[in-house]
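[job 4417] fold queue: 2 targets
>>> target A
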Amino acid sequence: MPLSSLRTAAAGAWTRHKDLLTNAASLLATTGVTSVLGFAFWAFAAREFSPQAVGYGSAAVGAMRRSAVRAPVFSSMRNKRLDCGATTTCA
């Protein structure tokens, strides 16, 4: 396959899937920047604070992340319980 036809195919794919590829690139860039900033933060914390303080901070961040992941699930369960009164049956 000649190089010009590959360029044409790539340009066509970009045109057809521009929104998807733009969102994927944005997600990739955001994840990379967040990872670098997180690494820099913990490297700074490890040098400036005691191991005990870093451990407590790490545990607190982990607990907050877990609760943030579980919050929508528990919220939807609570809303379903509130919607289902004693006189109605919910499937």
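>>> target B
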Amino acid sequence: MYLLNSAVISDTSTTKLYRLGERRYTLDRTYGTREWIYVQMKGGAIAVGEGVMQENGTDLFQVGKHAVTTPNARMVGVAAHAIAENSFGWVLKDGRGYCASDGTTTADTIQATAASGRFTDGTAVTSENGVWALETESPAGAGGLFLALIHF
């Protein structure tokens, strides 16, 4: 297991500092062990809590904001910080973290992807997207963040 300094997680760069798809782990008293994956943003910037997926027609781990409302095997992770278009950075692949709500997040529910890049209440049948809400969004409504278990 390769550990990454927690301070490096929020670093972004316009030049590639690690191999795309490289995975690292952080250990944290609050969130426990978390797995991160190194990506390049394509097709727009990403905000805190928004989901990212493999972008069509790009190299592996060149990702964009997810813009689908159905389960999708191309999901890569959730942004823990903003990453500008064409920049490189780390996204949360597995562990506890914050996700952005599309306005309907109920605690203790599986979350479906929304076309906005955010997440919304779903069902296990239609949304195998790897996000389980641990709390209701705050502030309430679209864009509010909620603590979740993330697993992609």
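[job 4417] complete. Note on B: The chain has two domains: 18-95, 99-151.
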